Amino acid sequence: MKTSEKEIINILLSTYNGSQYLEELITSVLKQECVTVHLFIRDDGSTDKTKAILNKYRNLNEIQIEFGENIGWRRSFMKLIQKVPYQKEQFYAFADQDDVWEPLKIMHAIEKLDTSKPAVYHSNMTLVDNQMNFISYKYDKDFLPSSKIPNAFFDGIGTGATMVFNSKMLKLLQQYTPTAATAHDAYVLALANLVGKTVYDSNSYILYRRHNNTATGFGGNKVSKSPSLLMRFKRYRRSMKRPYSIRAYQILQGYKNILDESDRNILKYISNYRSNIYDKFYLLFSPKIRATGLRQTLQIKYRIFFNTL
């Protein structure tokens, strides 16, 4: 999408005890070039200096800040999605409190977004340590994620801090509020793959910090791009979370009437497998139920077997 005048980008940021790097992130967001930035911040009950830092920005017209109770980052981002004003022909994005954006991050996304249907852009990331030293790129340059169901639903590709979406996508998201805590980025990307369009950019325009206080993921400064399969299996066994089945259930609750029948049936299998042995066996043994690649498929089958999908 080519533009001749400045587009408006509405950026959604949930903060929690993020004082160490927050100002650096906000500075890079406000310095986005070729766009007009509106920043919507919800603090999720921080107990460090985050609130004091945010108060420095309260008088800026381009920033709106809400200090809320601690409900967790998943629900906090969902609140932001529901509260941000819908504006036709504008764009929306997520931000994480630890990162640094390159000046043309948003403009590169807008240029690639389709505006004729609900659409989400996401990109590669540059992984850095606490001191901003390069670790690696998140994905290889020739990597191309699947947008087909069920692969795309299981792959877990797409980090919120890289996502930009159009007003049609926001309108769709605001039609239903999930009743259970679910990761905003995985939810948004799954819905776009089901009823809209996704665009992946192999380039990176964001420095994504990996450190021990990261709210999501495994964190850490290790050079390894991802934890070992054994480490993941151990975590899945301990975890009571069921992100995929919760996400499937929530999407069915809000959007089943606009889903293709085949996609709707797959989501029903995923949503019901813990209480329906037929659905569980189908997920375990059907060759259609897989992720992209053997490693990710093994993780999914493992989670199905131990009821942590």
TrEMBL record:
SUPFAM superfamilies given in the database record: Nucleotide-diphospho-sugar transferases
A Pfam entry, by short name: Glycos_transf_2
Enzyme class: transferase
GO molecular function list: hexosyltransferase activity
Coiled-coil portions: none
Residues in Glycosyltransferase 2-like domain copies: 11-136
EC number of the protein: 2.4.1.-
Keyword Glycosyltransferase: yes
InterPro entries associated with the record: Glyco_trans_2-like, Nucleotide-diphossugar_trans
Entry keywords, A to Z: Glycosyltransferase, Transferase
UniProt xrefs under PANTHER family: GLYCOSYLTRANSFERASE, UDP-GLCNAC:BETAGAL BETA-1,3-N-ACETYLGLUCOSAMINYLTRANSFERASE-LIKE PROTEIN 1
Name used for this protein in its record: Alpha-L-Rha alpha-1,3-L-rhamnosyltransferase
Organism: Loigolactobacillus rennini
The organism's taxonomic lineage, starting at the top: Bacteria, Bacillati, Bacillota, Bacilli, Lactobacillales
